[in-house]
Amino acid sequence: MAAIELDLSDVVIDAADVSGDIEQTLADIAEAIGAKTIEFLRALTSEMRPPVKAGAPWRHAHWGHWADRSSQLALGYRYEVNRTVDGVELVLINGTEYAMALEAHDGYMVLTGVTDPGGPAEVKLREAVAILAPGWEVR
Amino acid sequence: MQKQRVTITRAGAASGGTTDPDTGEFTPGSIGASTIWTGRGIYLDQGPQDRFNKMGVAEYDANGSVYLPKGVIESSGVAEGDSVSIVYQNGDAVDAEVAKVIRFKHRIDVRRA
User: Fold this and answer.
1) Closest B-chain CA to A116
2) ipTM for the complex shown
3) pTM of the shown model
4) How distant is the Cα of A124 from the closest Cα of chain B, in angstroms?
5) CB neighbours (10 Å) of residue A55?
6) Cβ of residue A121 closer than 8 Å to a chain B Cβ
7) Would you say B37 and B61 are in contact if contact means Cβ atoms under 8 Å apart?
8) How confident is the prediction along chain B (113 residues), in pLDDT tens digits per residue?
């Protein structure tokens, strides 16, 4: 699996920003992480993939090693930040039907590796909780 | 493409789980499959593809996987490496191993401990 190059270092976590509404502060951070993660997943890399048909140009690949044909898969990425009874949730989604088949093929990723447990989005949220809300947990 | 309704039951689990023929809803203890490509193994979809929740119909292709909706996974507790039996509507069954669980909706909860 390729190294994850998603850089969330510019999502600033500063205890001085907590104004009393810790849920809102965490929601704001989750919003920033979600936006940056989706931007990363939609971005093109320097990896090149073969053309769709003979004579067509080679295509830049996404992080998961696949390249656009219709762009529907890339456009299928989205995120949600929801306030819950207990706190905040960040949901990262690609509901495109083709995503399922692509993930099933070895060597291609759509969300796996970036958004699952231990990935950069979760790690960044854990960092935020450790600094801003030590009595909270990420799971 | 051949289509056939199927039920997947975990190997060794008590039999009797069913998939409702009209709604595609499953009874815990069994798993209603949505799409099956016979062959190498079973791939389980935990994605938000509601269409598959309503189908309860298997679609066969040459190369091999089964996709199941999130609710099915959560109720069944099926995980990678599990042995399962695919029981077809006509009573035939084949054994398979869950090769991969695919997630298309990742939720990270932040809550008070």
Assistant:
1) B106
2) 0.86
3) 0.68
4) 11
5) 6
6) yes
7) yes
8) 334 444 554 443 333 334 444 544 444 333 333 333 333 334 444 333 333 333 333 333 333 345 554 444 444 556 666 666 655 555 666 666 666 666 667 788 999 88
